[in-house]
Design brief:
With about 500 residues, the protein is of the alpha/beta class. The protein is built from 16 helices and 19 strands.
């Protein structure tokens, strides 16, 4: 017997969430016990795991079911220095790249090559090219695949074994995750970004607050966000322990996707848009959990410890572990403080930084770079601070250069790199060195995440830029933009 959305959630007949609508459209067969075999519209790979997935398919005597629906890019282990090639600082990286390329070519899976002008981080290029579309199911061998939920796709990360099954069958078994709606009321104030909204949510409800749910993000603050901001929020939902996150498509979504390489065109576009307009959750749809935050009350945020939930308002102080909610949280906070070399009661804005990083699938899009450049224009990075900017895609890099943003970054003292994952995670390659303190636009501040002993503080692009200029964690509202960013139409 098929499990209907009504039976799953107790909602009224014919009243469904956007999550249920997409799920129901993709059920191949109900497997019982809350699981279903789902059809996959798109599978995306990168060079760190894609070669192993494709080789596993071959070793099992199988072929990709729909190679034209499988895509790959190079982003995780490639070098981001100018003039790059297959050479990489990651030990064995060249072998990863070679295996990936050879296996993809053997079965005619399209790859976006290192020197391709479309190259970039998977979660940046997939919506940028229209590969991720509203109402589609989308998987990738990366935990932050939920990023593309910002265009209205049901997207989640998978492992290598799941990837093999997905490629060989264009399906995947998935257990129903349950639903949650997070509503952001009000509008963010000056200097407050989507990154600050995400960190506020995680800080308030904890790194397990998402409970493995599929989360719909709604409310006036979400509607007001640009597409880059929406992608940031969906990206960080994984750090909230969500299975995925999604935002219903609207006029901004359509404008973003129209004319992209893989989006429908002509009459097919009109038909697709008409279908996408029916995706938003019905007014009386039921969610298993609901949360509400006032975006207007949010101020810039920065993490102090070793989890995204270790976060505080930028004008606040390092918290006292004795005030933690329970013994486990207290022990975790004490360990985090020891690793971070911070003392309770320390004003966050007095904490010095050795390095600043702007990049990653969280905050490396054109609007992110514009926000940072607005702070940096006419200013210089503080003496002794290593500052690096890595655009999320070659397309973003070229668009930023057309606006003169690269000049703003370089003149301020930032390195201007080629696109890729870069210093989001240390994988025995690119590193900040040992025991440095870094303020970063990335999504994880775990121990050793950006290098051995490196202490990472997560923040928005504007906060990272402001901190790079002063040499210590700084509220970006203290540094009003020094001048307008020059925008040049290509």
């Amino acid at each position: 017997m098929t499990t209907t959305s009504t039976e799953r959630t107790g909602s009224r007949p014919n009243a469904r969430t956007i999550i249920e609508k997409i799920w129901d459209q993709h059920v191949v067969v109900d497997l019982g016990h809350g699981s279903a075999l789902l059809h996959l519209d798109r599978i995306f790979m990168h060079e760190k795991t894609g070669g192993r997935m494709l080789r596993g398919v071959r070793d099992g005597g199988r072929q990709p079911a729909r190679p034209e629906l499988v895509f790959g890019t190079f982003d995780h282990v490639i070098d981001t220095q100018p003039g790059r090639d297959d050479t990489t600082l990651f030990p064995g990286g060249a072998e990863f790249i070679s295996l990936y390329r050879d296996e993809a070519r053997r079965v005619h899976v399209p790859l976006i090559e290192i020197d391709d002008p479309r190259q970039g981080i998977v979660h940046v290029v997939s919506p940028e090219l229209g590969i991720a579309l509203p109402g589609t199911t989308f998987v990738c061998g990366d935990s932050h695949t939920s990023t593309v939920g910002a265009v209205g796709a049901l997207a989640w990360g998978i492992g290598v074994t799941q990837g093999e099954h997905a490629i060989a069958t264009q399906t995947l078994r998935q257990r129903w995750p349950g639903t949650m709606r997070v509503r952001f009321d009000g509008r963010p104030g000056p200097g407050v970004s989507a990154k600050d909204l995400a960190l506020t949510l995680i800080g308030r409800y904890g790194a397990t607050g998402g409970r493995g749910r599929a989360i719909e993000l709604t409310g006036p603050a979400i509607e007001a966000l640009d597409m880059a901001g929406r992608m940031t929020l969906c990206n960080m939902a994984v750090e909230f322990d969500a299975w995925t996150a999604i935002i219903a498509p609207d006029d901004k979504t359509m404008a973003f996707l129209e004319g992209t390489e893989y989006a429908p065109a002509g009459a097919a576009w009109d038909q697709a848009v008409a279908s996408w307009r029916r995706l938003p959750s019905d007014d009386d749809a039921h969610f298993d959990d609901e949360l509400t935050l006032d975006a207007g009350a949010v101020v810039p945020q920065v993490t102090w410890g070793t989890s995204p939930e270790h976060v505080v308002a930028i004008d606040g102080v390092v918290p006292d572990p004795s005030r933690a909610r329970d013994a486990a949280a207290r022990a975790a906070a004490e360990r985090a403080l020891a690793y971070s070399a911070l003392t309770p009661g320390t004003a966050v804005e007095t904490v010095p930084v050795d390095a600043a990083f702007i990049g990653s699938c969280t905050n490396s899009r054109l609007d992110d770079l514009r926000a940072a450049a607005a702070i940096l224009r006419g200013r210089r990075v503080a003496e002794g601070v290593l500052a690096i900017c890595v655009p999320g895609s070659t397309g973003v890099k070229h668009a930023a250069e057309a606006e003169g943003l690269d000049e703003v970054f370089r003149e301020a003292g930032f390195e201007w790199r080629e696109s890729g994952c870069s210093l989001c995670v240390y994988i025995q390659g690119d590193s900040f060195g040992t025991a440095q303190r870094v303020i970063s636009t990335t999504n994880r501040n775990f121990e050793n995440r950006q290098g051995a002993g490196v202490r990472s503080h997560l923040a928005s692009p504007a906060t990272v830029a402001a901190s790079a200029v002063t040499g210590h964690i700084t509220d970006p509202r203290r540094l009003a933009p020094a001048g307008p960013i020059r925008v040049v139409t290509p």
